[in-house]
Structure formats: structure tokens, C-alpha cells
Automatic annotation (TrEMBL):
Source species, domain of life: Bacteria
The entry's keywords: Membrane, Transmembrane, Transmembrane helix
Residues annotated as transmembrane: 12-33, 45-68, 80-100, 115-135, 155-174
Protein name: DUF420 domain-containing protein
Species for this entry: Arsenicibacter rosenii
InterPro entries: DUF420 (IPR007352)
């Protein structure tokens, strides 16, 4: 039985590691494509939808923490899996937007400009880092390895919450510069 679990875990680790590298690399490659694909005018609304998705994700992460502290495991599970699903939806929406639209430059001037770029850069870097942690956290939770889940969540949770909140802040800061 132990050998089967070990083999299963090795496969899961391999998949998590591949996804944690492949997702950011694929996003970077897609962002680097200069020739945009015409997917239609509807894609101009995707940044606004992504702002909502990030907001909902942040709220769900906070609720998930509240639920687990109250030992409401089922509500925690549903809330966190919903946050994970929203994160996946965000990724698809983000890729579709940047595949079909030019990036919007930030037009702010003065002291707000370095604040914006600090938030943007830290958001991007940590969004790459958090993929591995979140995948591990979800795997450990869904496979019943709750002690390992707790250990990885000590890193995953604050990073994921930071990425979600800064995603909303960055969106609100650049929102006036989007063209419809």
C-alpha cells in the first residue's frame, strides 16, 4: 500500500512541478506574442471581469480562513475550492485578453507611478511563485494529508491573498487608461 501511495505522490509531485513551470512560461510566451488574435470586442471587458474575479477570490480566501478557524471544514473546503476555480478562470481570462489585446500602459505621473510599478512587479513575481504553493495545498487537502496541507498553506495563503488584493489594486489604478 505504501509503495502505491509513494508512486501516486511522485506522479502528483511531477504534475504539480510541471504545471508550476509550464503555466508561467506559457503566459510569458503568450504575452510576448506581438501579433494579436481577433477574438472580438467582448475581450475588452475581460480586465474588468478579472478585477471582479480577483476581488471575489480575496473575499473567499478571507472567508476560508474564518471558516477553518471556526472548524467549519466543509465550508472551508467549498470556499477554497471555489477560490481555486476562480483562480483558474482568471488565468484563462487573462490569457484571452492579452492574446487579443495590446497591454494598456499606465498613465499615472508623480509618486503614484513607482507605487503602481512596485505593486505590479511584486504582484507578477508572486503570482508566478504562488502557483506551486496553491497546487501543493490543494493536492495535500484533497488527498487527506492535512498536516502537510497546513505546512504549505503557511506560505500559500499570504502569498495568494497578496496576489489577489494587489491584482484588484493594480486593476483599479490602471482602469482609467483602458480604451473601449
Amino acid at each position: 500500500m505504501e509503495a502505491i501511495q509513494t508512486e501516486k505522490e511522485q506522479k502528483a509531485n511531477r504534475l504539480i512541478n510541471i504545471l508550476a513551470i509550464a503555466i508561467p512560461v506559457a503566459v510569458a510566451v503568450l504575452l510576448g506574442i506581438r501579433q494579436k488574435v481577433d477574438l472580438g470586442q467582448w475581450t475588452t471587458w475581460l480586465p474588468h471581469i478579472n478585477g471582479v474575479i480577483n476581488s471575489l477570490t480575496a473575499v473567499l480566501l478571507i472567508l476560508g480562513l474564518i471558516f477553518i478557524r471556526k472548524r467549519n471544514i466543509e465550508a472551508h473546503r467549498i470556499t477554497m475550492l471555489t477560490a481555486f476555480a476562480l483562480g483558474s478562470l482568471f488565468l484563462v481570462s487573462y490569457v484571452l485578453y492579452h492574446l487579443s489585446n495590446e497591454s494598456t500602459p499606465f498613465g499615472g505621473q508623480g509618486v503614484i507611478r513607482p507605487v503602481y510599478y512596485f505593486l505590479l512587479i511584486s504582484h507578477i513575481v508572486l503570482s508566478v511563485v504562488v502557483v506551486w504553493f496553491v497546487l501543493k495545498a490543494v493536492y495535500f487537502a484533497t488527498s487527506g494529508q492535512f498536516e502537510r496541507h497546513r505546512k504549505v498553506v503557511k506560505w500559500a495563503y499570504p502569498i495568494w491573498l497578496y496576489v489577489s488584493i494587489t491584482g484588484v489594486i493594480v486593476y483599479l489604478m490602471i482602469k482609467p487608461y483602458y480604451i473601449h
